[in-house]
Design a protein that fits this description.
- The protein is mainly beta.
- It has 2 domains: 159 residues, Hexapeptide repeat proteins (UDP N-Acetylglucosamine Acyltransferase, domain 1); 32 residues, no CATH class.
- Helix content is 0%, strand content 33%.
- The protein is built from no helices and 26 strands.
- The strands form 4 sheets. A 9-stranded mixed sheet has the order 1-4-7-10-13-16-19-21-22, with no helix packed on it. Strands 2-5-8-11-14-17-20 form a 7-stranded parallel sheet, with no helix packed on it. Strands 3-6-9-12-15-18 form a 6-stranded parallel sheet, with no helix packed on it.
- Strand 24 and strand 25 form a beta hairpin.
- It is globular.
Length: 195
């Protein structure tokens, strides 16, 4: 059952999937699409036309600016920010206030099952690969490969992570998930599960 707090601000043109919960002071802008069974925390912001897949979780005060695209099962931690402007300015060179005609929005794309930690900042047009993990406080300035763990400012890869969210352990010619026992092979800086 869908649940929207009385204090949430949800645009009439927004689409909210079945079972999605939107909490106190969250704002969902025009033409945003939220999939089924999402959880939008207190004070979170979802910009115009942003698309969230099913089973996404935006924690308190997460800011997802248009035209971001989040696949199914994405986690965005508290106070994380997905930006949308390559050249941010409040005014044009002649001193007038910028409006929507004065810039082109670029979005962050987040793959299935990926997690973005608390306070992390993803600078558009970055792409976060499926099942990747962006550590709390990291600043992502370039694409993150699937299954990668990135940390720091600017974010750099520190290892690999599996679908369960646990760091993978090197086991000879492959990587192993200590939680699920699943194996992965690394080739040319990319990780793929062994079927």
């Amino acid at each position: 059952m869908t649940s929207i707090a009385d204090t949430a601000d949800v645009a009439q043109s927004a689409v909210v999937g079945e079972g999605t919960r939107i909490w106190h002071l969250a704002q969902i802008r025009e033409d945003a699409i939220l999939g089924s069974n999402c959880n939008i925390g207190r004070g979170a912001y979802v910009g115009p036309g942003v698309v969230l897949g099913n089973n996404c979780k935006l924690q308190n005060y997460a800011l997802v600016y248009e035209p971001a695209r989040l696949a199914d099962g994405v986690f965005v931690g508290p106070a994380a920010v997905l930006t949308n402007d390559l050249h941010p300015r409040a005014i044009t060179p002649d001193g007038t206030l910028k409006d929507s005609d004065d810039w082109v929005a670029v979005g962050v794309t987040v793959g299935r099952g990926a997690s973005i930690g608390a306070g992390a900042i993803c600078i558009a047009p970055a792409s976060i690969g499926e099942w990747a993990t962006v550590a709390a406080g990291a600043v992502v300035t370039r694409d993150v490969p699937p299954y990668a763990v990135v940390i720091g400012v600017p974010a750099r890869q520190s290892g690999w992570v599996g679908e369960a969210g646990h760091p993978l352990k090197e086991a000879g010619a492959c990587w192993l998930c200590p939680a699920t026992g699943r194996s992965y092979i690394e080739r040319n800086g990319r990780l793929t599960p062994v079927d």
